Amino acid sequence: MIKFKISPPLTNTQLNDLFSSAWPSHTERDFEPILSRSLAHIAAFDGEKLVGFVNIAWDGGVHGFILDTTVHGDYQRQGIGIMLLEAAAEVAKEHQLEWLHVDFEPEHESFYRKAGFEPTGAGLLRL
Q: Which domain CATH number covers 41?
């Protein structure tokens, strides 16, 4: 049974293993600076194994930003990603955010639409 936890302590090893299983181009990184600046993160566990993650960054005001939605390769297409986003939306509401933004590649549009995200016009500058 998958259990969801709000902002549990996570190690770089756990997160890098998860990201490597889901994103073939992932390179190991230090997640501490990211998590220390986040409003919250949601983690999904199968027993002790981290199988899903989403990060909620924010502007310190009313805007939150979904980042790094990831589900372990062996656990994809079981609804875990949608549940992570639903939990993130609840956490955002509890913190009185008014907007929850997400950017995604076109191939992920149906996934985010299922989670309730509406399409918007936005700009992006690759640095």
A: 3.40.630.30
Whether 121 is covered by a domain: the verdict is: no
DSSP notation for 40-106: EEEEEEETTEEEEEEEEEE-SSSEEEEEEEEE-GGGTTSSHHHHHHHHHHHHHHHTT-SEEEE---G
pTM, 2 dp: 0.91
Helix (H) or strand (E) holding 35: helix 32-36
pLDDT digits (tens, 9 = 90+) for 26-75: 999 999 999 999 999 999 999 999 999 999 999 999 999 999 999 999 99
| Domain span holding position 67 | 2-114
Contact call for residues 55 and 66 (beta carbons, < 8 A): yes
Q: What are phi and psi of 8, to 5 degrees?
A: -75, 160
